[in-house]
């Protein structure tokens, strides 16, 4: 675990790296009451959730109850609460996430609903790389990506390893795999150009 998160290669962990190890070891999920769902969901997902939310907000008050939330979760193919009608076994993680978002256990608004969805669907935080990289830097990364990517328009672990080595960033194969796992939003085992740019922001 040390080699995977010790990106600097110092042989020891800083506080931030230690927190990453701690979170991974305990398999912590983000807390819905602490995240900004807009950093996790794209426009299409938010539009879908908005439609599902409005269908269940029958009085147009901008809030739904927990029963309606259960219906929404099922419609999005996510697990429901343990106490929901039709549940056959306890779902401790779902119950915990909902309690974190709605401590009072009453009605919730659209933002709370989106935050719950982002956590239960295990969405990863999105980053706008254009806020960190200049146009010239993006162009340079594009050139490197095209040189190392496959015909499918993605870059595999080996290609990423070679590309980073060419930039003077020497990481172990296990560290490369860990990076791909962290930034591969579509879980294909390889990165597209957008995902590569986000990775470059994080390790730069």
Model description:
The chain is mainly α and 204 residues long. The chain folds into two domains: 15-28 and 133-203, Recoverin, domain 1 (Orthogonal Bundle), CATH 1.10.238.10; 37-121, EF-hand (Recoverin, domain 1), CATH 1.10.238. It contains ten helices and two strands; from the N terminus they run H-H-H-E-H-H-E-H-H-H-H-H. The protein has helices at 2-5, 15-26, 43-56, 66-75, 92-101, 110-120, 135-148, 157-166, 173-183, 193-203, and strands spanning 63-64, 108-109. The chain has a two-stranded antiparallel ribbon. The model is unreliable at 1-5 (pLDDT under 50).
Mean pLDDT equals 81
CATH architecture of the largest domain: Orthogonal Bundle
CATH class of the largest domain: Mainly Alpha
DSSP summary: helix tally: 10
Low-confidence stretches: 1-5
How far apart are the termini?
21 Å
CATH superfamily of the largest domain, by name, is: EF-hand
Number of strands: 2
The largest sheet, given as strand count, sense and whether it forms a barrel, is: 2 strands, antiparallel
Order of helices and strands: HHHEHHEHHHHH
Structural class: mainly alpha
How much is the radius of gyration in Å? 20 Å
Helix content: 40-55%
Strand order of the largest sheet: 1-2
What is the CATH topology descriptor of the largest domain? Recoverin, domain 1
Overall outline: elongated
Note the beta-strand portion: under 5%
Number of domains: 2
């Amino acid at each position: 675990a040390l080699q995977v998160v010790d990106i600097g290669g110092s042989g020891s962990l800083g506080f931030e790296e230690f927190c990453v190890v701690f979170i991974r070891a305990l398999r912590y999920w983000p807390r819905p009451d602490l995240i900004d769902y807009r950093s996790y969901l794209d426009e299409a997902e938010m539009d879908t959730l908005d439609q599902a939310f409005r269908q269940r907000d029958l009085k147009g008050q901008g809030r739904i109850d927990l029963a309606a939330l259960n219906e929404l979760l099922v419609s999005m193919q996510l697990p429901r609460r343990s106490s929901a009608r039709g549940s056959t076994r306890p779902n401790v993680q779902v119950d915990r996430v909902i309690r974190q978002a709605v401590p009072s256990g009453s009605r919730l608004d659209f933002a709370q609903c989106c935050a719950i969805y982002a956590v239960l669907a295990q969405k990863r935080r999105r980053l706008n790389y254009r806020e960190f990289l200049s146009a010239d830097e993006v162009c340079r990364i594009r050139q490197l990506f095209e040189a190392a990517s496959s015909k499918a328009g993605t870059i595999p672990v080996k290609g990423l390893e070679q590309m980073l080595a060419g930039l003077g960033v020497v990481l172990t194969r296990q560290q490369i795999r860990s990076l791909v796992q962290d930034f591969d939003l579509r879980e294909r085992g390889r990165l597209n150009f957008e995902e590569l740019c986000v990775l470059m922001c994080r390790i730069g």
